[in-house]
From TrEMBL, chain A:
Residues 400-411 have a biased composition (Polar residues). It comes from Vicugna pacos (Alpaca). Residues 389-411 are annotated as: Disordered. The gene is PPP2R5B. It holds the Pfam family B56. The B regulatory subunit might modulate substrate selectivity and catalytic activity, and also might direct the localization of the catalytic enzyme to a particular subcellular compartment. This is Serine/threonine-protein phosphatase 2A 56 kDa regulatory subunit. Belongs to the phosphatase 2A regulatory subunit B56 family.
TrEMBL record, chain B:
InterPro entries: 2AA_helical (IPR055231), ARM-like (IPR011989), ARM-type_fold (IPR016024), HEAT (IPR000357), HEAT_type_2 (IPR021133), PP2A/SF3B1-like_HEAT (IPR054573), PP2A_Regulatory_Subunit_A (IPR051023). Keywords: Repeat. Belongs to the phosphatase 2A regulatory subunit A family. Residues 612-637 are annotated as: Disordered. Residues 98-282 form the Phosphatase 2A Regulatory Subunit A helical domain. It comes from the Eukaryota. Residues 288-369 form the Phosphatase PP2A regulatory subunit A/Splicing factor 3B subunit 1-like HEAT repeat domain. HEAT repeats lie at residues 24-62, 101-139, 178-216, 217-255, 256-294, 295-332, 338-376, 377-415, 416-454, 533-571, 572-607. SUPFAM superfamilies: ARM repeat (SSF48371). Pfam families: HEAT (PF02985), HEAT_2 (PF13646), PPP2R1A-like_HEAT (PF22646), VPS15-like_hel (PF22956). This is Serine/threonine-protein phosphatase 2A 65 kDa regulatory subunit A beta isoform isoform X2.
């Protein structure tokens, strides 16, 4: 181990080690028959000693992967060679998993996973490929790897919103999900519902959203019956204040709708399109625009057409209102196009909705007023009760008198 | 609430009869089910009102089952619900019925979202105290057991927080079961659960019998402290504080110390950081002997740890550690075993470490006494006063009072001066602001001569700083100085300089004169205010910049109470009357407002008021702070200058007050 923070210390030693590592890389990559059984423990030991370390505290506690430059690993000149060697070792045609599994155990994998928190993207890239190969070659470790990944995610979601390697882990999982056998095990479904869907709620979603959406769609392509769960989950975590995330959610929703089966669509159309309508009424024009693009998608349009008796009423009120109020001209004209499509789709329904729109508005107002009255009544009642109990406490004998008096005064 | 439940229930039921028809549960439930989240949330927040309307019985039989069944809502709604239910005992009929609240809270304790779960656990803990012992065993303990053996990690983590509230009141057989459950959670497969258990280990240990602590808690602690995940191990360090308090010295030495030593040298910096962070608590928990034998060497290692985070955390604890040492032999220990390491830290490579040290190091002087301070600490202070990082210097200066008590500040003054001057001119305005705040303190300790000679010019220079926040702080600083050094000093040193600025070409500086007068007039008293300040203020009423003029009006209002009737009647009023006719509507507004105050004061002094205008300012109160500036209008020196300050500064302290104000007629 050399101290790379001090860049002039022991330059010669570093060079010797670099050369030796280079030689090892060359050797394992090009020579056949060198990977004999006795070298396995030494190889794994060499790798462990060099790569496993407690990652240093981040120099920037508010590190934002999108904005800030990552801290690069100072010992990379050596580290890279070790990773390269490890990778070639795993990929060598002579590599025997049955021998290696004695040394590449659960503890080894756990430490490997912890390294994914490295701030250095080069290191994470190597780790990604390596973990992928490990998953491929060590069948006995697969369940363990999946479990540990979900622990990392859960911690990331619920305890400590900081882990640099989420995107890389998701990328590996994407290819793992792709290979799941049908029917899906409960464990896998649970992973989708309780880990992947809540992952959408994380603040730094933008860093790994593409990989996450890929995983979700993979699941749905495997098993369409999960669609309802997924869409309801996304609606539950729908961003309330972050428009950037809203646009991502809309994008993912369209990806899901692209593969949705009509029978599944029916189950979620109403809550889904109510949300879409809310997005259309967003004052942020990118959100509204993204939502309105749904109507440019032929498949989605055909789904809407088949179910226009449900979808139309769900969105009509909002569209109608926003078409009159939105500040952005592009949005207004997009909405007109959508309303026109509706008219062509089902003119009769369209006319009915237009007619009932005003009535509904009035009813809404009336309801709001009723609500206010209800709460006012409740509040008065509460105060009366409070007075009642207080009276009871202070003078139990005269309890009834003040109560009668107050309620008489109120009515 | 619980105590009054008897009669309260009666009253509620009696009054409730007539209202039942008014508030059928369906209507209320409709409100709780409303499609709009905000409305749902509002309804949930008034859940107690709903319960009150329903009366205790219907709350139990209708409302609670509904709440239990419809627990799949937005987290925000659930959070509000979890909170409400914690205070619901009275509303369901008092302690005898508290267990009715358990089913909805149990569901809430298993949801995904951490804040909801935590709130549900908090409410459960609250309610557990309201249970009778019988109800606790019949209802509460089974709930804890169910949660502890739930199949998803959320319910098991929630269970961890509930053991300690039901253990003390349970029977022996149940106690054994509870311990068994806790044991299994400590070795749970999921790290989240182990973390939750480790976090509650100390709390649980406190309610256990001593035998069980030794036979059960210690092994659990040992396991958690050597967990494969550092996030679990570091929580064990926290538990260590509570456990150590419970054990005798021998047990401590044999059972806990090996683990603690190991934690102090853990390969993960997070664990070592935790040891450093909890050092004072640990020190108190293990007692002086073990501190001397074990903790001091560990502390030395932490002070020279390879991670700056750990060193900084340890540096923060230096003073507390030293304070808590037994007085006998304290000086020797500090001098021999701590000070050498501190000396190293003064020249640490990391500024956070140095500034952590600087924030506590001055405190050592009271502990070590005069001679040691002069001989050993003073060189360190001086070195830190010259540190390249302003935060370090500031931390030293802000704690000067500790040293002052011991050796007097004179020893430092020669080195202080350059440090102060440099901070006073630092490029970051927050640094300048910080040093201004310490000026009155410094002035008090350095004495008036030293101050006049060395620091006075700095204080005046801040008055013309290009950041408003600094000018403002400098103004207040002057007032505090006058309070310290007296009126005569003010008259000789401060007032003339302030008044000269009234002729400055920059309108911002002219306004500073007014701001200074506002705060100084009171401290200086009537004579100086009337004779020296008032003429200047009155003269400025003719200023060409409207902002200056309306600040004149404000100043006159401010200093009015200090002036005598003659001055008010003969000098102030005419000027305010004139300003009241100003072409700028804001000047008019403030002049009229000031006038009304002055007139009131004159009335109080019982003088006839002649020819006064109607003092109200109808219609003038809108938009009187900011007016859009017309294009091409030259704002003079001020605003152009402001464009240079970096955006962060302007964000924190927008110089709105400084915007030049133009009369509309000029457009």
């Amino acid at each position: 181990m050399f101290d790379f923070l001090d860049c002039v210390a022991d330059l010669k030693g570093k060079e010797v080690k670099r050369a030796a590592l280079n030689e090892l890389v060359e050797c394992v990559g090009s020579t056949r028959g060198v990977l004999i059984e006795p070298v396995y423990p030494d190889i794994i030991r060499m790798i462990s000693v060099n790569i496993f370390r407690t990652l240093p505290p981040s120099e920037n506690p508010e590190f934002d992967p999108e904005e800030d430059e990552p801290n690069l690993e100072p010992s990379w000149p050596h580290l890279q060679l070790v990773y390269e060697f490890f990778l070639r070792f795993l990929e060598s045609p002579d590599f025997q998993p049955s021998v290696a599994k004695r040394y590449v155990d659960q503890k080894f994998v756990l430490m490997l996973l912890e390294l994914f928190d490295s701030e250095d993207p080069r290191e994470r890239e190597y780790l990604k490929t390596i973990l992928h190969r490990v998953y491929g070659k060590f069948l006995g470790l697969r369940a363990y790897i999946r479990k540990q990944c979900s622990h990392i995610f859960l911690r990331f979601i619920y305890e400590f919103e900081h882990f640099n390697g989420v995107a890389e882990l998701l990328e590996i999982l994407g290819s793992i999900i792709n290979g799941f056998a049908l029917p899906l095990k409960t464990e896998h479904k649970q992973f989708l519902v309780r880990v992947l869907i809540p992952l959408h709620s994380v603040k730094s979603l933008s860093v790994f959203h593409a990989q996450l959406a890929y995983c979700v769609v993979q699941f749905l392509e495997k098993d369409a019956t999960l669609t309802e769960h997924v869409i309801r989950g996304l609606l539950k975590y729908w961003p309330k204040t972050c428009t950037q995330k809203e646009v991502m959610f809309l994008g993912e929703m369209e990806e899901i709708l692209d593969v949705i089966e009509p029978s599944q669509f029916v189950k979620i159309q109403e809550p889904l399109f109510k949300q879409v309508a809310r997005c259309v009424s967003s004052p942020h024009f990118q959100v509204a625009e993204r939502a309105l693009y749904f109507w440019n998608n032929e498949y989605i349009l055909s789904l809407i057409e088949d179910n226009c008796h449900t979808v139309l009423p769900a969105v009509f009120g909002t569209l109608y209102q926003v078409s009159k109020e939105h500040w952005n001209q592009t949005i207004v004209s997009l909405i007109y196009n959508v309303l026109k499509t509706f008219m062509e789709m089902n003119g009769k329904l369209f006319d009915e909705l237009t007619a009932s729109y005003k009535l509904e508005k009035q009813q809404e107002q009336q309801k709001a007023q009723e609500r206010q009255e209800l709460w006012q009544g409740l509040e008065e009642l509460r105060l009366r009760r409070l007075q009642g109990t207080q009276g009871a406490k202070e003078a139990p004998l005269q309890r009834l008198t003040p109560q009668v008096a107050t309620s008489g005064g109120q009515s | 609430m619980a105590g009054a439940a008897g009669p309260g229930t009666g009253a509620g039921a009696a009054g409730g009869d007539g209202d039942d028809s008014l508030y059928p549960i369906a209507v209320l439930i409709d409100e709780l089910r409303n499609e709009d989240v905000q409305l749902r949330l509002n309804s949930i927040k008034k859940l107690s009102t709903i319960a009150l309307a329903l009366g205790v019985e219907r709350t139990r039989t209708e409302l609670l089952p509904f709440l239990t069944d419809t627990i799949y809502d937005e987290d925000e709604v659930l959070l509000a619900l979890a909170e409400q239910l914690g205070n619901f005992t009275g509303l369901v009929g008092g302690p005898d019925f508290a267990h009715c609240l358990l089913p909805p809270l149990e569901s809430l304790a298993t949801v995904e979202e951490t804040v909801v779960r935590d709130k549900a656990v908090e409410s459960l803990r609250q309610i557990s105290q309201e249970h009778t012992s019988v109800a606790l065993e019949a209802h509460f303990v089974p709930l804890v057991k169910r949660l502890a053996s739930g199949d998803w990690f959320t319910s098991r983590t929630s269970a961890c927080g509930l053991f300690s509230v039901c253990y003390p009141r349970a029977s022996n057989a149940i106690k054994a079961e509870i311990r068994q459950h806790f044991r299994s959670l400590c070795s749970d497969d999921t790290p989240m659960v182990r973390r939750a258990a480790a976090a509650k280990l100390g709390e649980f240990a406190k309610v256990l019998e001593l035998d069980s602590v030794k036979s059960e808690i210690v092994p659990l602690f040992t396991n958690l402290a050597s967990d494969e995940q550092d996030s679990v191990r570091l929580l064990a360090v926290e538990a260590c504080v509570s456990i150590a308090q419970l054990l005798s010295q021998e047990d401590l030495e044999a059972l806990v110390m090996p683990i603690l030593r190991q934690a102090a040298e853990d390969k993960s910096w997070r664990v070592r950081y935790m040891v450093a962070d909890k050092f004072s608590e640990l020190q108190k928990a293990v007692g002086p002997k073990i501190t001397q034998d074990d903790l001091i060497p560990a502390f030395q290692n932490l002070l020279k740890d390879c991670e700056a985070e750990v060193r900084a955390a340890a540096a923060h604890k230096v003073k507390e550690l030293c304070e808590n040492l037994p007085i006998e032999g304290r000086e020797t220990i500090i001098m021999d075993q701590i000070l050498p390491f501190i000396k190293e830290l003064v020249s640490d490579t990391n500024q956070h470490v140095k500034s952590a040290l600087a924030s506590v190091i001055m405190g050592l002087s009271t502990i070590l006494g005069k001679e040691n301070t002069i001989e050993h600490l003073l060189p360190l202070f001086l070195a830190q006063l010259k540190d390249e990082c302003p935060e370090v210097r500031l931390n030293i200066i802000s704690n000067l009072d500790c040293v002052n008590e011991v050796i007097g500040i004179r020893q430092l003054s020669q080195s202080l001066l350059p440090a102060i001057v440099e901070l006073a001119e630092d490029a970051k305005w927050r640094v300048r602001l910080a040093i201004i705040e310490y000026m009155p303190l410094l002035a008090g300790q350095l004495g008036v001569e030293f101050f006049d000679e060395k620091l006075n010019s700095l204080c005046m220079a801040w008055l013309v700083d290009h950041v408003y926040a600094i000018r403002e702080a400098a103004t207040n600083n002057l007032m505090k100085l006058v309070q310290k050094f007296g009126i005569e000093w003010a008259q000789n040193t401060i007032v003339p300089k302030v008044l000269v600025m009234a002729n400055d070409p920059n309108y911002l500086h002219r306004m500073t004169t007014l701001f200074c007068i506002n705060v100084l007039s009171e401290a200086c008293g009537q004579e100086i205010t009337t004779k020296q300040m008032l003429p200047i203020v009155l003269k400025m009423a003719g200023d060409q910049v409207a902002n200056v003029r309306f600040n004149v009006a404000k100043s006159l209002q401010k200093i009015g109470p200090i002036l005598d009737t003659d001055a008010l009647q003969e000098e102030v009023k005419p000027v305010l009357q004139k300003l009241g006719q100003d072409e700028d509507m804001d000047v008019k507004y403030f002049a009229q407002e000031a006038m009304s105050v002055v007139v009131q004061r004159l009335r109080k002094l019982d003088l006839p008021v002649k020819d006064c205008d109607e003092p109200s300012a109808p219609g003038a109160d809108k938009n009187h702070f900011l007016r859009p500036r017309g294009p091409g209008e030259d704002a003079g020196k001020g605003p152009a200058y402001q464009l240079c300050v970096n955006p962060r500064e302007t964000l924190a302290h927008p110089e709105i007050v400084g915007l030049v104000h133009f009369s509309q007629s000029r457009d």
